[in-house]
């Protein structure tokens, strides 16, 4: 690709290029991008619940920026700090995944979740669920108009990298598509990948529920070795302290065949998450439920858990759910969506920050 030697476009040239995308007002598009960069971050969050959730994920980086985080462009710098800390090449041992050979979130679980949260908040604005006019209007242009209004990097190698990403984005999304719909489609693609991992989570919770029920009622009644139940519970708790099987145990219920009951329950995975771009979805309705967990999804680790299951049928179901091919493809969808969100809503505003 002969793009490295191309001169950087001026604002006037970018406005002309935006006009070719059939945008009704390319000059206004560039100004709206600039206005969003300067918007007070409180208008982007709008509600304290979103701020608290973002702070839980990114607080240490937001704190490091002091007052610079108060406008949207400055807030984007917290993502830059997080990616530098937790992204590829990070020396922080607490962020090293236990299975480096298996595809992992591109910038780690917490940063990926924070980028998804940002996309969800912006989609609320795009769908008119929030009240800030500047954010709303910036998300109402077409995808092509928005891309053409964004500033280009100064370094030739970076321009080439951005254009390569843009070319890939436009193979997945029509440039004439409203930006709000493109944003919704990116989040839908993320959810499509996330559901593969959520299905694994659900089966694990059902296995944990069975183990808790057997501990409560006595494994002998189900003709299960008590030592096996205890060992499985210990292995599951070691795998993740978040796997609380008691949530699937109804205190006053008694099952003639508990292994059969929880196997049936595991086969009834709901398989549905609210469509963040759908009509009738209130602001803030889709958040935590589509975040990834800090779990080891390496199929070898999960198969080792399956072998210890007190129910052979549940163990076989878990093994069936941990196809390396499917999980790798699902993580690919997640990473593509997160990269698209970052490249659309974070990186361009960093360039604007550093050019002031």
Mean pLDDT: 85
Determine Rg (CA atoms, Å). Answer: 23 Å
Q: Structural class, from helix and strand content?
A: mainly alpha
Say how many strands there are.
0
Low-confidence stretches: 1-6, 17-23, 89-100
Q: What is the share of helical residues?
A: 55-70%
- Number of helices in the DSSP assignment: 16
Number of domains: 2
N to C succession of SSEs: HHHHHHHHHHHHHHHH
Hey, roughly how much beta strand do the residues contain? Answer: under 5%
The largest sheet, given as strand count, sense and whether it forms a barrel, is: none
Net shape: elongated
- Report, as a whole number of angstroms, the end-to-end distance: 30 Å
SSE layout and pairing:
Elements: H1 11-19, H2 26-38, H3 41-45, H4 48-64, H5 72-86, H6 109-126, H7 133-138, H8 143-149, H9 156-172, H10 179-217, H11 226-239, H12 258-266, H13 299-307, H14 312-321, H15 324-345, H16 347-354
Helix pairs in contact: 1-2, 1-8, 2-8, 4-5, 4-6, 5-16, 6-10, 6-15, 10-11, 10-12, 10-14, 10-15, 13-14
Question: What is the compact description of this entry?
Answer:
The protein has 356 residues and is mostly helical. It has helices at residues 11-19, 26-38, 41-45, 48-64, 72-86, 109-126, 133-138, 143-149, 156-172, 179-217, 226-239, 258-266, 299-307, 312-321, 324-345, 347-354.
